[in-house]
TrEMBL record:
Location of the HTH lacI-type domain: 10-53
One Pfam family cited in the UniProt record for this chain: LacI
Keywords from the UniProt entry: DNA-binding, Transcription, Transcription regulation
Protein name as catalogued: LacI family DNA-binding transcriptional regulator
Biological classification of the source: Bacteria, Pseudomonadati, Spirochaetota, Spirochaetia, Spirochaetales
GO molecular function ontology, one term from the record: transcription cis-regulatory region binding
Cross-referenced InterPro entries: HTH_LacI, LacI/GalR-like_sensor, Lambda_DNA-bd_dom_sf, Peripla_BP_I
Amino acid sequence: MAVKNDRKKSTYQEIAAEAEVSIATVSRILTGASKVKPETRDKVLEIMARHGYDTADLQMVKQPQTSGIIIFNIPSLGNPFYSQIASGAKAAARRHGFQLLVNEEHINSNTIATLTGLIQKVNAAGIITTNHVPTPLLRKLYDTLPLVQCCEFDNELEIPYVSIDDIAATKATMEYLISLGRRRIAFVNGPMRYKYARQRLKGYTESLEKAGMAQDPALVIQLPDVSYDMAVSAVGQLLASPQKPDAFFCISDVYAAAVVKSCARSGINVPRDMMVTGFDNLDIASMVNPAITTVNQPKYQLGFSSCELLVDLINNPQTGVRRILLETELIVRESTSPLIS
């Protein structure tokens, strides 16, 4: 970049301070990244011009980006929940001429350097996150490149997301179980660092309150991971207690399958003696016997909509933060059917 006069140019840090923006914002303007508000861009360029920079090339209006790499981050390739989401995101990326790069990694303080290195290496146009990301790291990523949250999202930050209403979906399922006469409904939950675990627990407790049913802490199983074997063991202990539940609401089909297994081991008939519901509508829900009633998430649409939102953000950074909640559906199967014994 040429200098307009002989006076010493200010550093980018000084320009950022005067413009009251981050250095990352100045960097995005210099490299042609699009996720900068027009008024912010104009302000920074005006300050740069006053400090001796030739900003003529940077004044050009950026054309819509129709190619590049989008990083799709998932915590585990072994979790079948993410495969259909990735398929939807890939279809949307192709539709706009982008390539989707699936990155398997939990985003935390130990891995953020590797991820930012990957972003720089492939010159990523944007990123879709599907898992819990600590707020400071999520803010850092969002300041680096266009970002959309899928499934998991952080309400503390003004960042776009596509997800579902976990509380409403849980309440609908609980109301269904209560309508079938179930009064001691156990709840099998996952790690509380996840939004879905916190919101589904909220939906569970509020449903009990609405129905005038007492909350029994002994009926809540809190697990540190979505593990089939771990759930089989924990559920088995609850089934061996004097005060057994008469139904299980599980926040995952993996947990629900574990409940069906534990009941079979204990000689408990599903659904006559124990009704079971899951969440996600994974293949395993229809493969076990009896097949499991579950909440269907529109997994393909979650991925597709997230990528559509990201491409729009890449090319129209002035667009306000959009937040989309997709509809869910309760799929009733044999595990809650009063006609099955």
